[in-house]
UniProtKB/TrEMBL annotation:
SUPFAM superfamilies listed in its UniProt record: Tetraspanin
Transmembrane region(s): 12-36, 60-84, 96-118, 241-264
Name of the protein described by the UniProt record: Tetraspanin
Cell location: Membrane
One GO cellular component term: plasma membrane
Alphabetical UniProt keywords: Membrane, Transmembrane, Transmembrane helix
Length: 333
């Protein structure tokens, strides 16, 4: 029964380990796909216009995807170790596997709890006032090309202009310093004729430039995006936020199942080793009893006649057979 329980626990461990392997491989592939999705990564630049992450050389999603790929590599390596641990009766390998998964689980839970309870402390989220001031201060300015490209991408892909409205550009450095004196709003605020072309936000071509740049609403309406980017950006952020937490929850549940199956396997290995040791001791004690029982008739019994000697021999033979049967049954346990 103990052997069956041990085999069953190892099957459960192998299945959970297979799920961990699939999870690690999926994280690696998914992280690499997002990492090379330059427009998605660039758009995340608008999530941290100010704060501790605003000075990073790359957008925030760039580093998040690198962390996801690294996590996938760690989980894949741990699952390979787990395959080895599920095939051998070794506490050291199983303990190392358990420790790696436990450390990863604790780190993930800490990060997910912080992001879930207090995302602003990580610089995540769309803050209307901060984003508006960042656009007025940094859009179109030298050394802020990446931020400018992120704003142009958002206005092109989300069909919006500014944070609340296009009027924010009236007081921006881009307009006040006459960097583009002939324009009332950036070209990406206009409805573009090349919207279906790749990277159209880098080379925008308005359907009608004069009407798009007209100050009167009745003239530019239909040729310029009038909705602000605040709500579309919040929806974009919310969708990615929920997806990130959802994937994290699945990973945590799989890792937790791996830990439980590892504990069950360790327990079964311990009981199996104890039963094996007990069986070995019983076999050794039984061997000693058989030897002593075989020697006892030589010193205690007398051979008075042939029939009596035959009777004693038969009794000893039957006793030896019974001892061997008991010994065989103990070995089968």
């Amino acid at each position: 029964m103990a052997v069956v329980s041990l085999v069953g626990s190892k099957i459960i461990l192998a299945f959970c380990n297979f799920l961990l392997l699939v999870c690690g491989f999926t994280l690696m592939v998914g992280g690499m796909l997002v990492f090379f999705d330059h427009e998605r990564v660039l758009l995340s630049k608008l999530l941290t216009p100010t704060g501790p992450f605003s000075t990073l050389p790359h957008p925030l999603l760039h580093y998040i995807t690198m962390g996801v790929v690294l996590l996938g590599i760690i989980l894949t390596a741990a699952s390979i170790l787990g395959c080895w641990a599920s095939c051998v009766h070794n506490y050291c390998i199983l303990s190392l596997y358990f420790s790696i998964v436990l450390l990863v689980l604790v780190g993930e839970c800490a990060i997910y709890i912080i992001i879930w309870i207090w995302p602003n402390c990580m610089g995540l989220g769309v803050e209307d006032g901060e984003l508006m001031r960042a656009i007025q201060r940094n859009y179109g300015i030298r050394d802020q090309e990446e931020f400018t490209a992120a704003v142009d991408l958002a206005q092109t892909e989300l069909n919006c202009c500014g944070v609340d409205s296009a009027n924010e550009y009236d007081t921006s450095y881009w307009r006040l310093q006459a960097l583009r004196p002939s324009l009332a709003v950036p070209l990406t605020c206009c409805k573009l004729s090349n919207i279906n072309q790749p990277k159209s936000y880098l080379n925008p071509s308005p359907t009608s430039l004069p009407l798009c740049q007209a100050l009167e609403r009745n003239r530019h309406e239909g040729f310029r995006h009038t909705m602000g980017c605040k709500e579309p950006l919040k929806k974009w952020y919310r969708d990615h936020y929920i997806a990130f937490l959802g994937v994290g929850l699945v990973v945590v549940l799989i890792e937790f199942s791996v830990l439980l199956s590892s504990i069950v396997t360790c327990t079964r290995i311990y009981h199996h080793n104890r039963e094996t040791e007990d069986n070995e001791r019983n076999i050794q004690q039984l061997d000693a009893d058989i030897v002593s029982s075989n020697l006892a008739p030589i010193t205690t019994f007398k051979r008075s006649s042939g029939s009596e000697a035959g009777a004693y021999s038969n009794e000893l033979y039957d006793m030896g057979n019974q001892m061997h049967v008991v010994k065989y049954r103990i070995r089968e346990m």
